[in-house]
Design brief:
The structure holds two protein chains of two kinds.
Chain A lengths: L1 H14 L6 E7 L5 H11 L2 E7 L2 H10 L6 E2 L3 H9 L19 H7 L9 E14 H8 L9 H4 L1 H8 L3 E3 L3 H12 L8 H5 L1 H8 L5 E2 L4 H7 L4 E5 H14 L5 E4 L5 E9 L7 H11 L2 H11 L2 E2 L10 H4 L8 H5 L1 E2 L6 H16 L2
Parallel strand pairs in A: 1-2, 1-3, 5-6, 5-7, 9-11
Antiparallel strand pairs in A: 4-7, 4-8, 4-9, 4-10
Helix pairs in contact in A: 9-11, 12-13
Chain B lengths: L1 H28 L2 E2 L6 E2 L7 H11 L3 H8 L1 H33 L6 H9 L6 H12 L4 H8 L13 H25 L3 H9 L4 H12 L1 H16 L3 H6 L7 H11 L3 H33 L1
Antiparallel strand pairs in B: 1-2
Classes of the chains: A alpha/beta, B mainly alpha.
Chain lengths: ~350, ~300
């Protein structure tokens, strides 16, 4: 559905010549409360065109092609860092962003490594990458002591063989899956050494025949409907799936666990492309998003933590107290971050990934 | 003079919409990947003049084409696409021919309605139709619910994200392209030939094989090419309905471009894909031409 909505939006944009001021935002799918989009238009009188993507790679392709036409985009920190180096973004004008005082130092410090001083970007949301299970079905297949909070669930061929019939989805993102496989082996997940990275290949190749699909967005519905039993995915997406299953009341119960071996922590940053048609409007949008109430509404809806300290007081109880969203000290210690691959290593990684996925 | 003008128009068309884009793609296929805007190097710098052009030409090489030969993925994907295209063309022919035959033999006043029914699905977006197949074929989808409901199976069939789903999607989508050319030939078929054959003692079945099928050959060939050529490069159906085991060159091309952000290699794959497709396209053109000559 997402795909077709995107295409319809694109057709729509072509059809209407811009009369009023408009700002074009390109964000991840299932990543905002739609009512905020209406609220923005009502408050500012700026027409908002909101498109979605489901992979950093697709966003980067559009950014590096130039002339994407978007005013605000939301890459993950590691991608942002090298896109800044490629000259894809313009510096933020903090004079136009009074709500930036709401931002949370803890997250600002962590995103400093990708964008020093947050000169080009502000944090939208952050989270971890972990394991989603349909608790009932997985217990049925692997028993009550199934390792649902361990990478062994998805990287141990004997487990995956049994789960295959029920359905397992992996992320189609080498920058998520390869660090996880390295972590499982006890290697440095952020290694840029091709020899170390190569060790991830046999781990992933061994379980690939049991993976039904590599995709970054379809797992939300697939696991909520009971079409699959296990997915390796993003924290908030899994919690959204949990809620969709509740609403559908279809007997599917979903749990999210950050792997005990360690989970990747990532930061999605809002930035303004260098060739944005309406940078003024983009600043208005960023300022709107950094409003404490708006940011809290967004997190309450999508179950991802945000980088906004003032918003925390306005979060729902089940969001702020859920360690899967706002990790406690112990979980936090178990989270790791990664840095972007240099171009040569990047090619090795993408080749390896294509090879793993296609099974050749 | 008028003749020359008449010829120039289609050639301009060809130049603007085919040769120039092809030259751009070919040029990118000779360059190297870079993290920059645009994501390849070298880029042509007209300001640098003749020297710039020379430096530019020097930096181009066939490295990416050599790379395609070193990785088994690419020729396997080409072969797999050919296989999927061949099998699905045969399947559409097997299903499409009887439908076209039935339509051509239906009472005259029925035919417009029948043609309409074949064309009707085109009024809905192709993407939405493929998406609805996801709803039908998924584990908890309508097909499995129906089969379990009437007691044929007890465990749901895993069809979605397999090659079977890809074949279903392709046959469904491309069926009209097979039916319509065959129908247009069968409709014009001279019925007196069949009557003559039966008068001379030929059974209806052998009359079908000896007269109807050979005379509809051109329709069959046209239909097969109309299905085969686009299916080889098909991307939407395998990526939505196929699984991790579905290997098609259209999908590989998309991945090179969007996932690997490797425009030079993606361009090289596209150039080779085009070269592979030129053979069936030329054969198709020749068939059309022969048909026109036979008619005139």
């Amino acid at each position: 559905m997402r795909f077709s909505i995107l295409c319809l939006t694109a057709m729509f944009c072509l059809g209407i010549s811009s009369m009023a001021e408009e700002v074009r935002v390109y964000n991840w799918s299932d990543y905002i409360d739609d009512s905020l989009l209406d609220k923005f238009e009502q408050e500012t009188g700026i027409e908002l065109i909101y498109d979605v993507f489901d992979s950093n790679e697709v966003l980067e392709t559009k950014l590096l092609a130039g002339g994407s036409g978007y005013d605000v985009v939301v890459p993950t920190g590691t991608f942002l860092q090298r896109q800044i180096a490629a000259g894809a973004f313009q510096k933020l004008d903090y004079g136009k962003l009074p709500n930036a005082e709401n931002l949370w130092d803890v997250i600002k410090d962590r995103t400093d490594q990708y964008d020093p001083g947050n000169a080009y970007s502000i944090n939208y949301m952050w989270g971890s990458t972990g394991i989603a299970v349909n608790t009932g079905k997985v217990a049925e297949i692997l028993g009550d002591d199934a390792p649902v909070d361990s990478l062994a669930l998805i990287f141990e061929p004997s487990n995956m063989e049994k789960l295959a019939g029920c359905g397992v989805y992996f992320l189609d993102a080498p920058t998520e899956m390869i660090p996880a496989a390295l972590k499982y082996l006890g290697e440095n997940p952020d290694s840029h050494d091709p020899d170390v990275i190569a060790k991830a290949e046999p781990v992933l190749t061994a379980v690939r025949p049991h993976v039904r699909k590599f995709n970054n967005s379809e797992y939300i519905n697939a696991i909520a409907n009971g079409d699959i039993c296990v997915a390796f995915g993003w924290s908030g997406d899994v919690l959204q799936a949990r809620d969709r299953a509740w609403e559908a009341d279809n007997g599917v119960e979903i749990a999210y666990n950050a792997p005990v071996e360690g989970a990747l922590m990532w930061f999605d940053q809002m930035a303004i492309p260098a060739d944005a048609p309406n940078p003024e409007g983009a600043h208005v949008f960023l300022n709107f998003i950094m409003d404490a109430q708006n940011m809290a509404d967004a997190s309450n809806y999508v179950y991802f933590a945000n980088g906004n300290l003032a918003a925390q007081a306005l979060l729902n109880e089940d969001v702020i107290t859920d360690p899967a969203i706002y990790p406690d000290e112990d979980t936090l210690r178990n989270l790791y971050t990664t840095t972007p691959y240099p171009p040569k290593v990047q090619r090795t990684v993408t080749r390896m990934w294509t090879k793993i996925k296609s099974g050749t | 003079m008028r003749r020359a003008l008449l010829i120039i128009v289609p050639y301009c068309w060809l130049l603007a919409l085919f040769l120039i884009p092809f030259a751009i793609v070919f040029k990118i296929s000779l360059s190297d990947i870079a993290i920059a805007i645009p994501p390849y190097t070298p880029t042509l710098d007209f300001d640098a003049g003749w020297q710039g052009l020379k430096n530019f030409a020097k930096a181009l090489d066939f490295e990416n084409f050599l790379f395609l030969t070193t990785d088994a993925l690419y020729w396997k994907a080409y072969l797999s696409s050919l296989r999927i295209a061949l099998i699905s063309t045969l399947l559409t022919l097997l299903i499409g021919y009887p439908i076209a035959y039935g339509m051509a033999n239906a009472p005259d006043h029925w035919r417009p309605t029948l043609i309409m029914l074949v064309i009707l699905p085109f009024w809905t977006s192709f993407l939405i139709r493929v998406y609805s197949w996801m709803g039908i074929l998924s584990t908890e989808g309508y097909l499995n619910q129906f089969l379990i409901g009437i007691g044929i199976i007890s465990d749901p069939l895993a069809i979605l994200n397999t090659n079977t789903a890809v074949y279903i999607g392709i046959v469904y989508t491309y069926l009209p392209f097979m039916i319509l050319p065959i129908y247009s030939i069968l409709e014009r078929l001279d019925g007196s030939l069949l009557e003559a054959a039966e008068d001379l003692g030929c059974s209806r079945i052998s009359a079908f094989w000896l007269i109807t099928v050979p005379l509809s050959r051109n329709g069959i060939i046209a239909g097969c090419f109309l299905v085969f050529i686009p299916v080889i490069g098909e991307f939407v159906i395998p990526s939505l309905l196929g699984g991790s085991n579905t290997l098609m060159i259209g999908k590989v091309l998309w991945e090179e471009f969007f996932n690997n952000r490797d425009w030079p290699v993606a361009s090289a794959v596209a150039v080779i894909l085009l070269l592979i497709l030129i053979v069936p396209i030329i054969l198709f053109q020749r068939n059309e031409q022969r048909q026109r000559e036979a008619e005139s």
